[in-house]
Amino acid sequence: AYFAAAGLAGPFAGRTLNFLAIQRVGATRTASLGMSESLFAAALGWTLLDQGLTALTAVGMIVLLAGMILFINETGRTFRQPAPDTADEAQLEIEQRTAAERPTGQVAAGVAIGLASGLFFSLAGVMRELGLEILPSAVLGASVGSFVALAITLFNVARGGQLRGAFRIPGADALPLAASGVLASAGMVCF
After folding, report:
1. pTM, two decimal places
2. Contacts of 59 (CB under 8 A, 6+ apart)
């Protein structure tokens, strides 16, 4: 059950939220928000798994938290745009907006979603550890978690009527996509 919960929390919920954050604030900022996973993992390990916090871990958490606060403030400033003076300027601004320039509300949502992604990925780590305490097989844990994530994702894609399109992957993209899935699963086994 813990391995299945890890599959729901990390590969499914965490990755889904990660993609949603990328849509709102871009890949670079979303990747930077990934720092939150370590912060959440230390906090969850301390509270749920009774893992001790060393002085070095506490300093690391403070540094990560400070970095996250600075990053979130920088992201908010970067995306704040002065209000246009006329309707024509507003329309021109909309037309010229690049993918990196988002409305402030969208940025705030992207930051929140990116942080939630980090929380779910760290929660998956906690669930994996709890599962390994009961059944010490990393291969089984990674397999169950990956299968659950795949099954839920396929169900949602089919429910949305997009199943046929999900399998229309150009040949040049198929190998890197398959390799990323295999490497992600191998990483879960090693972690």
Report:
1. 0.69
2. none
Residue 157's identity, in one-letter code, is V
Of 107, 114, 112, 111, the residue nearest 79 (C-alpha) = 107
CA–CA distances in Å: residue 32 to residues 15, 77, 115, 137, 168: 15, 16, 10, 32, 31
Is residue 25 within 8 Å of residue 109, measured between CB atoms? no
Task: Give the single-character DSSP code of 170.
Answer: -
Q: What is the pLDDT of residues 7-31, one digit of tens each?
A: 889 888 888 898 889 888 888 788 8
Could you report the per-residue pLDDT of 45-68, keeping only the tens digit for each? 989 998 888 888 888 888 888 887
- Kindly give, in sequence order, each residue whose CB lies less than 8 Å from that of residue 126, ignoring residues fewer than 6 positions away: 41, 44, 45, 48, 49
